Each structure stands twice: as C-alpha cells, then as structure tokens.
Structure of DUF2971 domain-containing protein:
Amino acid sequence: MVPAILFKYRADTELTEKVITGAKIWLPTAETLNDPLECKTGIIPKDWQQQQIREMEQGQLMGLFGFPGAESRETLFSLDRKQTRKWFKRLKKLPFDRKIKAMRSLYGDHGIELSDPRLIFKTLEKQLSSMGIFSLSDCPDNQPMWAHYAGDHTGIALGFSTAEGSKLSDPRHTFPVVYDTRKPVFEKGFLHEIQFYRTEAGGMRSLSKFSFDDPVLRAAVTTKPPAWSYEREWRYVEESSGLHDFPGELVSVIFGYRMSEQRRNYYRKLLRSAGRNVELFEVYISSSGSFDIKSCR
C-alpha cells in the first residue's frame, strides 16, 4: 500500500523556495543520482535478444501478408494486383533475412521508414538514462536522510499527499524501491510500443522502443543495492526528465532540528504568500534521546 504521505528531504536553498512558490519539481536523470548503479539491467543474453528481434520482424512480415483468417491483400501501396502477386511470389522464395530487407525496401520506396527491431536493445540504455526520477521516502524522521539530504538537519522535508487521483497514487508512475543485489533480467518477452513521426520529406518514420509499462524496465528504475534500504525510498517516475507539476498536493512541511527560528518564520511567510495551506511540524529530540516529529503551528 502507498503511504498517505511521501516526503522529500530538501536543503534550505533558493531552489527549495522555488519548489514551494512554483509548484514544480525537477525530475533528474539516473546519471545525476548518487548511486552509479542506478537504472541498470542484468546481462541480456544475445540468443534471447535475437529470438525477440526475429519475432518482431515476423510480426512486421505478418502485417504485409495479413493475419491468419484475414483476406489476402490484393494490392500493396502503389502496386497493382499483378505487381502485388508478383512481389509476394518473389518474396516467398527468399530466405528470411532477405525477406526483411525486401519488405523494408518496399516501405522505403513509398516514403515509410519502418522501425528496425535490431535497434531496440541498443536504445534501451538510452531510454533508461532519459527517464525522470523523483525520489521520496515514507519516513519523515530518518536521521541519516536529514543529515545527507536536508543540509545536516538545517533543511526541511516536504510532505506530498498520495490521495486518489494524484500521480503518487498511480502505480504506473509511483512505486517503492526494491533493495536487491541482483539486477532485473528479462526471463520471458517484453512490452514494446511503436511511435510514428513525420519526416522532413513528408514521409513517415516509425520507431520501436520499450513500453513505459514493461516490468523489467520499471524494475531497472526501482532496484537498488541493499546498502540503501535505510532510505525507505519511493519513486515518482516520468518518461522524460525536467520540470513537472507536483505529483500530489503539498500537505505538510517539517522543519529540521537545526533550522533557525528565523528561517522557520521565513518559510511560514513563504507558504502563506504562495497560498499553501499545509500542516507544520518540527523535528525534536525526545526524552529517550531519539529524533521525533511534533506539530509546531
């Protein structure tokens, strides 16, 4: 279950102020995160790749021949019936690789650059490296997190609601990090999608890529070594990095133990001027000597 609130630890900076006033967050790419092992998959066996590529190419050929039970195509593009029958007759005599080449040539002659399944695994790393990742935690009183990400306890923690209808409640965009020494691997097939573009010459280009919903792709984005498990991390993910709207309503702000009263008052005024009706809390040391959270409105 998704916690009711997820927290973003922030240092006390101008960028943090802009987050509050602008209601925008920055989703960085994996290469800017603090773990160099981010967004990696396990080794993808070459024979498995070739099998998947062949199945995709067979699917493209099937699109020309027609699916089983469907009527045979009488014409292809600008070819008349006689030319189409001749083209199919010649194609059937070709070995598989040459069939693919002939098919791509036919599409190319009619202004269509057909997607090349051989490239999909080569672009997987690029696709993973372009995704935007916003890291949060379900724990607001984590001492190492306050030290590492909130200016050594002088910053704040922003609490975002995961209420229904928000992207933080959407399992397609928000999921918990899995802490595992093993990288995710492809054991069966994978989900892919085809995007179409207009070329400058007025033709059509198609591009195959991994679907945002592919389980292994998603697992690669949310798997980290066990050493990071203390963070209790959740991730809000988009297909591209950059500025995005809040994925959930900002409902609380927690002041760090070492944040001065002057800066706390500054943030109180900033929140009011930005129209943010949030609950305010502060970190304190309890009688048992541990960190705890209490309201400070």
